[in-house]
Target: GXWXG protein
Amino acid sequence: MPDFDETLQQGAVTTAQALELFDSLDGVDVDFMRGRWRGADFPTGHPMDGLLHRYGWYGKEFVDADHVHPLVFNGVGGRRYTVNPSLMPIGLVHLVPDALNSVAGRIFPWLKPVFGTRQTAARLRLTLYRGKVSAAMIYDHKPIQDVFRRVDDHTVLGVMDLKGMSQPYFFVLRRDVQA
Model:
């Protein structure tokens, strides 16, 4: 079984290596995911690697099974805000040049009135994915589900499954004990 910490320390790994690690981990139930989680990339060479952090991504917040904030960002003055994923062109990420994303990332926190929302935009359900049942976050208005596997009591490895995307996007969530 691949070791999570060793794999993470390698820096970028292949999608096949990330899938091998993901498949070796146990599933989690919906209640395990409750709370606020800080997000980090798990680089595999995916076009989204590093992108969310350029925009100030903080992580995700799971209120309960039917109320999830899938995109929590750091705003101006360090305040966190939730974003309406319906307004985010996630499927077009590979078409945007890195330089444009860098500039847009610097102004994004100032656009909270445009992208911010107090409404939840996803829910949690158990799903069978790659042979194991685990909690998955299902977006309300996007063909996306994020499936989670347990690394330890405070860490999960997530994989974003977007309809039409050629390779999955991997990320790590660590439970925010401050929340």
User: Anything to note?
Assistant: The radius of gyration is 15 Å. The mean pLDDT is 84. The longest helix spans residues 15-24.
